[in-house]
């Protein structure tokens, strides 16, 4: 038996581009471990046929392939568009309607009847994971009149998000439970609960299966702020989690998503729950044969963080290169796993100088810069002060990425410009020839209102100012 060259699991969304037995076989041979069926799209008959084909191919290949039914949940979607993609242009008026009709360039149907009462003039509405943004101008009983703030191409049934708005719907609806009953009958292995808010949402699906005399693995999709607030309980109730970054990124500030992703992954790892990292992993391969460098880094970093599986959505459901995309993501996984230990060790720079390869031939400057950062962290110091001309000591401190600021003080303009490149370094021009380094810097900070009375700061300098060959002095002083 030949094992794969990587251990990360690959989740592929099955759709028009991948539902034939030929493509399914190629996907499995390339590395697909999980087939995701998105019940927000398609028909029950279509899903039934997909399940049959997946099982037939897996049996023929003597391969295990988990089938996951992704329940729609309370996600709001637009309806069917007459012509697609529909291109929305900045400044264009768009009417969102709850009427049952086919969408046109100026009127788009929405499957949420309470949309008009959920928004008001000035509200922002996000379409397609936030890539398209509308602002509400006015509201009527059945229609919401909007102005396009950020335009772009829009396809049928794409998601609609209302950041900060309470959606009047349960995470697990009667429709979802009907899908569960159907999927259990067809032998589906696991269920994704969309927009889970509490552990009860997970238990609702499990309990429903138990009443039917069956068991169900349930994957909690983390997409709402409420899920973050209740994450520990959700994690305990669920069999696995999916970090669904698309909807999560419009429900919380987009810039917070990377840190949230790392924290959730860590918590799930501690409890031994599998983690799926999802949304736009290799999105550009929906249209292109190669991914972007940023996408490759995104997949690798998810693996470095400890994810169990990476998920492909449009890439394999409707993309032009579903098989090539899986081939690419497995190559990234193999490379990331091969380098994971080395990357992890390199990330702990202090340990490198204390116990690693750097401990054998370290210098005084290395030890002083490391001690400065550790002292600053221990004492909650806000500023480390250095001389600009002290042989690059600001850069040596900066490499440890401290929480505090590093003020590089002096009159060397060219070096000050260069130090603007280094993390956490703030160059300031100070003439301390007459006052001395410590007094001159403290006077500057006091006049600038940067420090409070009796506050600690750290000075790093050379003990003999006239000899600039070595930085060997660290002082902790208090402001006056």
Short description:
This protein has helices at residues 21-30, 44-61, 115-118, 174-185, 199-211, 225-229, 231-237, 245-251, 257-271, 293-305, 314-317, 322-347, 349-354, 364-379, 393-398, 413-419, 437-447; strands at 9-13, 32-38, 66-70, 76-77, 86-88, 93-97, 107-109, 124-127, 132-139, 143-150, 152-154, 159-161, 190-193, 217-222, 240-244, 275-278, 309-312, 383-387, 405-409, 425-428, 456-461, 473-478. With 480 residues, the chain is an alpha/beta fold.
Descriptive labels:
TIM Barrel; Pyruvate Kinase, Chain: A, domain 1; single chain; alpha/beta; 480 residues; M1 Pyruvate Kinase, Domain 3; 7-stranded mixed beta sheet; 8-stranded parallel β-barrel
Q: Can you walk through the features of this model?
A:
The chain is α/β, with parallel strands linked by helices and 480 residues long. Helices cover 38% and strands 22% of the residues. It has helices at residues 21-30, 44-61, 115-118, 174-185, 199-211, 225-229, 231-237, 245-251, 257-271, 293-305, 314-317, 322-347, 349-354, 364-379, 393-398, 413-419, 437-447, and strands spanning 9-13, 32-38, 66-70, 76-77, 86-88, 93-97, 107-109, 124-127, 132-139, 143-150, 152-154, 159-161, 190-193, 217-222, 240-244, 275-278, 309-312, 383-387, 405-409, 425-428, 456-461, 473-478. The chain is globular, with a radius of gyration of 28 Å.
């Amino acid at each position: 038996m030949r094992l794969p060259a990587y251990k990360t699991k690959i989740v592929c969304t099955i759709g028009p581009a991948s539902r034939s037995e030929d493509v399914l076989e190629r996907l499995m041979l390339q590395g697909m471990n999980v087939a995701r069926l998105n019940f927000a799209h398609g028909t029950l008959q279509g899903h039934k046929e997909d399940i049959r084909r997946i099982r037939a191919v897996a049996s023929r290949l003597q391969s295990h392939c988990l089938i996951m039914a992704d329940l729609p949940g309370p996600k709001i979607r637009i309806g069917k568009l007459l012509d697609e993609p529909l291109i929305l242009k900045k400044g264009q008026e768009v009417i969102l309607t709850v009427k049952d009709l086919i969408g046109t360039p100026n009127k788009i149907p929405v499957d949420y009847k309470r949309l008009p009462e959920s928004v008001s003039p000035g509200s922002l509405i996000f379409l397609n994971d936030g890539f398209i943004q509308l602002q509400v101008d006015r509201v009527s009983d059945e229609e919401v009149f909007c102005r396009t703030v950020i335009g772009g191409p829009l396809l049928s049934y794409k998601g609609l998000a209302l950041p900060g708005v309470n959606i009047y719907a349960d995470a697990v609806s009667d429709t979802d439970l009907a899908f569960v009953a159907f999927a259990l009958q067809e032998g589906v292995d696991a269920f994704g609960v969309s927009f889970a808010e509490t552990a009860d949402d997970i238990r609702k699906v499990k309990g429903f299966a138990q009443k039917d005399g069956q068991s169900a693995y349930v994957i909690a999709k983390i997409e709402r702020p409420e899920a973050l607030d209740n994450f520990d309980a959700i994690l305990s109730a669920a069999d696995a989690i999916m970090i669904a970054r698309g909807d999560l990124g419009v429900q919380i500030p987009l810039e917070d998503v990377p840190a949230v992703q790392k924290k959730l992954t860590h918590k799930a790892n501690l409890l031994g729950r599998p983690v799926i990292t999802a949304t736009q992993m290799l999105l550009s391969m929906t249209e292109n044969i190669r991914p972007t460098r940023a996408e490759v880094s995104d997949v690798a970093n998810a693996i470095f963080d400890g994810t169990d599986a990476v998920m492909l959505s449009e890439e394999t459901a409707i993309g032009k290169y579903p098989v090539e995309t899986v081939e690419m993501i497995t190559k990234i996984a193999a490379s990331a796993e091969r380098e994971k230990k080395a990357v992890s060790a390199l990330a702990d720079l202090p340990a490198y100088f204390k116990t690693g390869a750097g401990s054998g031939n370290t210098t005084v400057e290395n030890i002083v810069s490391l001690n400065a950062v550790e002292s600053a962290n221990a004492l909650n110091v806000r500023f480390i002060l250095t001389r600009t001309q002290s042989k690059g000591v600001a850069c040596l401190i900066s490499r440890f990425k401290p929480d505090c600021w590093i003020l590089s003080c002096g009159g060397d303009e060219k070096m000050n410009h260069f130090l603007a490149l280094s993390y956490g370094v703030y160059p300031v021009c100070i003439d301390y020839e007459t006052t001395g380094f410590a007094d001159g810097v403290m006077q500057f900070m006091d006049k600038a209102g940067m420090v409070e009375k009796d506050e600690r700061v750290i000075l790093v300098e050379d003990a003999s100012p006239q000899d600039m060959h070595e930085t060997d002095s660290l002082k902790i002083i208090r402001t006056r």
